[in-house]
Amino acid sequence: MWNEYHTPATLDEAVAILSRATSEDRSAGAPVGSFSRAARIIAGGTDLVIELDRGVRQVEALIDISRIAGLDEIRLDDAGWIHLGPLVTHNDVVTSALCVQRAFPLARACREVGAPQIRNRATIAGNLITGSPANDTITPLMALGARVRLLSVRGERVVPLADFYTGVRRTVMARDEMLTDIAFPALDDATRGTFIKLGLRRAQAISLVNVAVVIHDESLNTAQPGVLRLSSVQITLGAVAPTIVHAREAELVLTGQALNAECIAQAAVLAQSAVTATTIDDVRASAAYRADMVGVLVARALTQLMDGEERADWKDEPVTLVTPDAATPAPSVDAGLPIRLTVNGRVYDIHNPEAHEKTLLRLLREDCGLTGTKEGCAEGECGACTVIMDGKAVMSCLVPAPRAHGSSVLTIEGLAQDGRLHPLQQAFIDEGAVQCGYCTPGFIMSGAALLLENPHPTEAQIKESISGNLCRCTGYYKILSAFRKAAGIETTITNRELHPLGS
Q1: β-strand 209-216 against 191-198: which pairing, if any?
Q2: Rounded Cα distance, 462 and 393, in Å
Q3: Residue 25 has what pLDDT?
Q4: 205 versus 492: which is more confidently predicted?
C-alpha cells in the first residue's frame, strides 16, 4: 500500500521529509488543494488506510507523526483560546474537562464520530484535512470560529477555518504543509452551544445532516429572568452542501432577539433556505429530506439552548475503551529493520520486509500466526479485528503494521491465563452468546477493555462499548447478557486477574 514508512522524531524532521517527497509534485505543477501522490502525513490513519487499501489513493511514502512528543496537547492560552495539537484524538476531546466545559459543541460532535476504537486513533486534525462536508468536527469548529496553523520548510501560516476549504475534500493546504495547531475561543459564561447529528443508525454513522449552534448573551433582560437575549449567533450546517454552510439569515434574525418559540421557528425556516440551492442529493438521503431535516435540527438545537437542556443526555463518564495502564508511543522504527512488538506477553521480531506495507491485522494473522483476530470489513466498521494496543482498544485493520513497533498488543489468544478463561469469555459460554462466532473475538476484546476501564459499567456504558462491534447473526440480547454477567463476576476477582498481562 506504500513503499516507504517514515517515523520522524520532530516536526522539523517531518516537514523536511514531506518537502523532499513532494518536490516532484510541485515541479509538475499539480494544483494546490489536492493530495500528494508522493507522500502523506499520517497520525490515526482511520481514513487514509482505507483509501490506500481500496486503491482510491496512492502514495509512495507515509510520514507517521504519532510518535512526536507533545502533539497531543489540549491547552487554554492566556488569551482564552483553546489549542488542539495535531495528535489530539476524538476521545481526547471527549474526556477533556476543558473541552466539555468550554467547547461543548466540539466535545459532543467528537462523541458522535465512529466508535470508541475509532475515536482512540482518529484525530481532529485528520477529520479537518480529509475535508468531507459530512465530517462531524468541522461544523462545530466552524461555529466556534476556529483557525488552523500550517507548517512547511518555507515557514508557517494561520488560516481561518472558514477560508480553509475550496470544495469537497479540497483545502488551501500546499502539498508540503502539515497542520500543527487548531485554535478557537473558549466558550465563556455568557456563551453556550451544542451539536446535533442525524444519521441512519445510532453509532458508526456518517451524517445525513449535522448542525452546530453557538449563542452569546451579554444583555440578559433582568425583568425577565431566564430569557436569553442574543447578542450574536452562529449556526453552521454540515453534510448538506460541498462545504460547511453558515445560515447567515437565520443568524441575523435571531441576533438582538429574546430567544422564544416564534423566533426559533422563523430561524429554522431561514436555515432551510440557506441550503436549498446547493443541497446534496445522493444515495443516503434526498436533497428535499436533508433540507427538511436542517429545519428540524436547527429548531431542536435552539430549543435545547433556550431551555438549558443541551447537556441533559451527556454522560459524565463516556466509554473510551482506554485502560488505566495505557502507554505512550514507543520510539520510532527505520525502514528495513524488523518490526519488534510484544503480543500477549511474547516478543515477536518480524523480519519480513513486506510486513512494513501491511496493517496490524494482517501482521498478527500472517506473521505472528494469531488468527483469532478476524477480518470482517477491513474498513473499521464491524469491530471483528479489535485488539488492545498500548492499553487502548483499536481496529487493527486501520493500524499500519510499522506503527506497532515497540508496542504491546493484547489479542483474544492472550485473554485466558493459567488455564482460566477471562470472565467475559466464560460469560459468553454460560449465556450462549456465541452464535457463528466470527464476531466474538472483537466483542470480547472490547468488553475486556471496558472492564479494565470501568469494572462496574452501567447498561448504557456496556452498549456504548460495543457500538463499534457488529453481530451479523443479530444476537445482541445474549451478548448483552454475557456482558452483564461478566460485570457482576468482576466484583469478586482482582484487577490483575482481569488483565492478562498483570497490573
Answers
A1: antiparallel
A2: 14
A3: 58
A4: 205
Residue 262 has pLDDT above 60, yes or no: yes
More confident residue, 90 or 498: 90
- Rounded Cα distance, 38 and 24, in Å: 8
Q: Are 352 and 397 in contact (CB under 8 A)?
A: no
DSSP alpha helices (H): ranges in 331-475?
Answer: 360-362, 423-431, 440-453, 459-465
Confidence of residue 501 (pLDDT cuts 50, 70, 90): very low
Give CATH for domain 339-498.
3.10.20.30
How many CA atoms are closer than 13 Å to the CA of 469, on its beta-carbon side? 29
Residue 11 and residue 348: Cα distance in Å, rounded? Answer: 30
DSSP 3-state helix, strand, coil percentages of the chain (rounded to 5)?
Answer: 35, 20, 45
Q: Report how far residue 424's alpha carbon sits from residue 479's, in angstroms, rounded to the nearest whole number.
A: 10
User: Is 397 in contact with 391 (CB distance < 8 Å)?
Assistant: no
Q: What is the mean pLDDT of residues 358-380?
A: 97
The confidence score (pLDDT) of residue 3 equals 87
The Cα–Cα gap between 177 and 151 comes to 5
Q: What is the largest CA-CA distance in the chain?
A: 75
Q: What local confidence, expressed as pLDDT, does residue 224 receive?
A: 57
CATH topology of domain 190-314: Enolase-like; domain 1 (3.30.390)
**Domain range list for the chain:** 4-64, 190-314, 339-498
* CATH architecture designation of domain 4-64: 2-Layer Sandwich (3.30)
The pLDDT-based confidence of 221 (bands split at 50, 70, 90) is: very low
Q: In the numeric block, which cell numbers belong to residue 305?
A: 439552548
Cα–Cα dist 457/484, whole Å: 9
Q: Angle at CA 359, nearest 5°, toward 358 and 365?
A: 90
